[in-house]
Design brief:
Largest sheet: 6 strands, antiparallel
Shape: globular
Distance between the termini: 73 Å
Structural class: alpha+beta
Strand order of the largest sheet: 2-1-8-7-6-5
Order of helices and strands: HEEHHHHHEEHHEEEEHEHEHHHHH
């Protein structure tokens, strides 16, 4: 009798979870389709919760013509997230004893100037090498990039003393993998990473001629060319992307120790080989990485303790994938959520140069009455970004007016007070800067930037 009761209890619990997931999936589907109708999302979505895929869809066009619908089998470029393959590859070779992170670049890439004797492989992984970015105007191939590096007279800074996130570091990581393994980087990725992870649909360096390849385009329906000066970019489907994420979380390719090395960046607000995240002991508890390439944009947000993963990929970048993820997370957690819309700041393009702050706020209120359904006037982001536009154009007084107004709209946001503090700091008003940075820190105790500036101002 007790066994039967326990069995019925388990069945009831499972049914309850399934019903809740069905309701959540329906809400997410409604939100995603409305975002598409509003013109703020064209792409593919996969959501897993409690280690089960609860939602997967493709919505919109696969190319600029609009005549080919996306499917869940379409591959997308994922921008910087594809750098995970070379970072993981380096750590795989390190675990095999084939290289050390303290090895100098000159050991593996011959012909470079003497600065290569001061850069370690770890510097490349942490983007602290001092290498300048690739010359995108003239570089058309790997050979061009290597030629430019061989003729680079000096670094931007001493290796390890600063941070510069750029693809020169990625390029050399891939060349080191080739030198150590004796095989092309693309072959290494296919044989040592994609195949072991069961990623059968992924493709490295695809072209427009390859089937089921999404082509990115802008809002004027102008397509991007699938050409990259650096080779070695892996394009993935939703299912393969999820397999890759799960392989990272389960340590299929790397040990927890080696994963930690490329999950944690060199410092706050910086990127690591896996983007960023957090571990507790030998378990990943958070992994977040975003990537952009022209009008491709992708976001991975993984929460292993919840068995939750959100994957978003678009071929019509709108800069709102984090906003979409926030809505998805809220729906999954049963919390209130906001429908992603177009950013209201888009309505101000070309207008701010002729408006002062008061005129801008008047126009903001007018446009809000007209376009509240299609554009986001309810978050702090639009006015904050407009404030930074003024600040970047040395209109500090106008920026302060905008930021002040935003703090009245969002008095619980540490971010808006941080922005106002920055504007006063630029103006030279240390008293007001200090007051607003202190307010920001009180609202957001994790604001390390505010802590540093408060310490400086209080001296």
């Amino acid at each position: 009798m007790k066994i039967v009761s326990l069995f019925l209890l388990l069945i009831t619990a499972v049914s309850g979870v399934t019903a809740a997931q069905s309701r959540q999936a329906a809400l997410i589907d409604s939100m995603v389709h409305r975002a598409h109708r509003l013109g703020v999302f064209n792409g593919n979505v996969l959501i897993a919760d409690h280690r089960k895929v609860v939602y997967k869809t493709a919505i919109g066009a696969a190319d600029a013509t609009g005549s080919v619908p996306l499917t869940v089998q379409h591959r997308f470029h994922i921008g910087s997230i594809a750098k995970e393959f070379n970072a993981v590859g380096i750590m795989m070779l390190k675990a095999q004893g084939k290289l050390s992170l303290d090895d100098k670049v000159s050991r593996y890439v011959p012909g470079l100037p003497s600065w290569a004797d001061s850069i370690t492989i770890l510097h490349l992984l942490q983007y602290t090498s001092g290498l300048p970015d690739i010359n995108w105007k003239t570089a058309k191939s790997d050979a061009d990039i290597l030629h430019d590096l061989k003729n680079l007279p000096q670094l931007m800074f001493r290796p390890g003393s600063n941070y510069a996130y750029n693809n020169a570091n990625v390029f050399l990581q891939r060349r080191i993998i080739e030198q150590v393994t004796g095989m092309p980087f693309n072959t290494f990725v296919e044989k040592q990473q994609l195949q072991p992870c069961g990623m059968t649909a992924s493709m490295i360096d695809p072209t427009e001629k390859d089937s089921l390849m999404a082509i990115a385009f802008n809002d004027d329906r102008k397509p991007d060319a699938l050409f990259y000066p650096i080779s070695g970019w892996t394009a993935v489907t939703l299912d393969d992307f999820y397999k890759w994420s799960e392989s990272i979380n389960s340590f299929r390719l790397l040990s927890p120790e080696d994963t930690r090395t490329i999950l944690y960046p060199a410092g706050p607000n910086k990127q690591a080989g896996l983007g960023g995240g957090e571990m507790k002991g030998d378990h990943i508890i958070r992994h977040i990485h975003d990537g952009s390439s022209l009008h491709f944009n992708a976001l991975l947000v993984s929460d292993p303790p919840k068995g939750r993963t959100v994957i978003l990929m678009t071929n019509n970048k709108q800069g709102n994938l984090y906003e979409l993820n926030t809505a998805i997370q809220a729906i999954l957690d049963g919390k209130p959520w906001q429908q992603p819309r177009k950013s209201a700041e888009q309505l101000f393009k070309g207008k701010l140069d002729t408006l002062n702050a008061q005129q801008c706020l008047a126009l903001f209120q007018q446009l809000k009455k007209q376009y509240a359904e299609q554009y986001d006037f309810d978050s702090e982001a639009p006015l904050n970004n407009i404030g930074y536009y003024y600040l970047g154009h040395n209109q500090t007084a106008d920026a302060i007016v905008i930021f002040e107004y935003n703090t009245r709209l969002f008095p619980s946001s540490g971010n808006v007070f941080d922005s106002l503090g920055e504007a006063y700091y630029k103006k030279g008003d240390k008293q007001q800067a200090l007051a607003n940075y202190k307010r920001s820190l009180a609202l957001d105790p994790g604001n390390t930037n505010a802590k540093m500036i408060i310490a400086e101002l209080e001296k």
